[in-house]
Amino acid sequence: MAEVTLKHIKKVYPNTEKKSKKGQKKSNLMVTDEGVLAVQDFNLDIKDREFIVLVGPSGCGKSTTLRMVAGLEEISGGELLIDGKRMNDIAPKGRDIAMVFQSYALYPHMTVRENMEFPLKLRKMPKDEMNKRVDEVAEILDITQYLDRKPKALSGGQRQRVAIGRAIVREPKVLLMDEPLSNLDAKLRNQMRAELIKLRQRIDTTFIYVTHDQTEAMTLGDRIVIMKDGIVQQVGTPQEVFDHPANIFVAGFIGMPQMNMFDAKLIEQSGKYSVELGGVSIILSEEKQAALAKNNVKSQEITLGIRPEHITLAEAGKDAITGKVDVSEMMGSAIHLHVNACGRDTIIIVQTMDLTGGEDLSIGSEISFAFGGNAVHVFNKESGENLEFI
């Protein structure tokens, strides 16, 4: 059990390209005189037994951050504290941290039991206590029947359970997991996600989990940290980042299908706000009105975000936007319509066939849709920031 604090953490890799200049970007990462900034000014307080998920696209710095916590990467700046003790210069073995890798990293010549015993042998734990620990963890992970097998005789999901078992058998203060499910097929990933949710209820440890899969982030994390180009974009509960994205990147990254984005105009008149889109005026909710008024937001051109599930089919008229169906995707219990409207390809979700009312939703047909002012998100056109939170 442990609290983990990251204060202004950064990671700089030496710049090997002589032509790179200060301020240039290399692979979307900032290049300075020091080198390539892989992680910039990372700040986070992780509570005891909290499950934190670092999520973002490939190359955003999430695995680098995890490896700095583990001691596998040197920290270029800032402080890492575990239970208040500075860890920057402490060797990995002195941090009381265990790590589960994407590739399992099991010893092929050892049995499952021997793999799980290995970190305990390094601690010179008595044989009886070692057997007890391994048996208890194997029961938790439902791998007791595999203890005498070698890794090559196991499936991917079974190997991943063994890797997790080897990590938690020594009861670390912090358990780090670097994309542990990415090598599994979709069915096994779903199964292992459920197992991880059960596991965190049964063991007293702090989890830091890295993934590029937003479904894993939303279902596993107490809080999620969304990163882009080495910079933290937003930290919050899954519901907070879904309902109140800090910027366009977060809005587009969290949620499936992605949030629709329109060019629109925000109108402010006597402290009241509305949005004009496709000839339709949308009055914003009282909550959004208050937030914009508090930030003294003025009339301006904006990017308007609306999640597909918040769009409904409507009758053609002054309060509805009309578009042409370009793609119709049958998803079983839902239909995803790609509609060309307001100069943008928009995804509309019809949740069930019963809600279509017999309307023609085939490719090439014209449909009308609407959405309420409580469901829209208003972003600055230049910076991409959510105008409710500036």
From TrEMBL:
InterPro entries: AAA+_ATPase, ABC_transporter-like_ATP-bd, ABC_transporter-like_CS, ABC_transpr_MalK-like, ABC_transpr_MalK/UgpC-like, Mo/tungstate-bd_C_term_dom, NA-bd_OB-fold, OB_MalK-like. The keyword Oxidoreductase does not apply. Keywords: ATP-binding, Hydrolase, Nucleotide-binding, Transport. Its EC number is 3.6.3.-. One of its GO terms (molecular function) is ATP hydrolysis activity. Residues 24-254 form the ABC transporter domain. One of its GO terms (cellular component) is ATP-binding cassette (ABC) transporter complex, substrate-binding subunit-containing. The keyword Nucleotide-binding applies. GO terms for biological process: carbohydrate transport. It comes from the Bacteria. This is AAA+ ATPase domain.
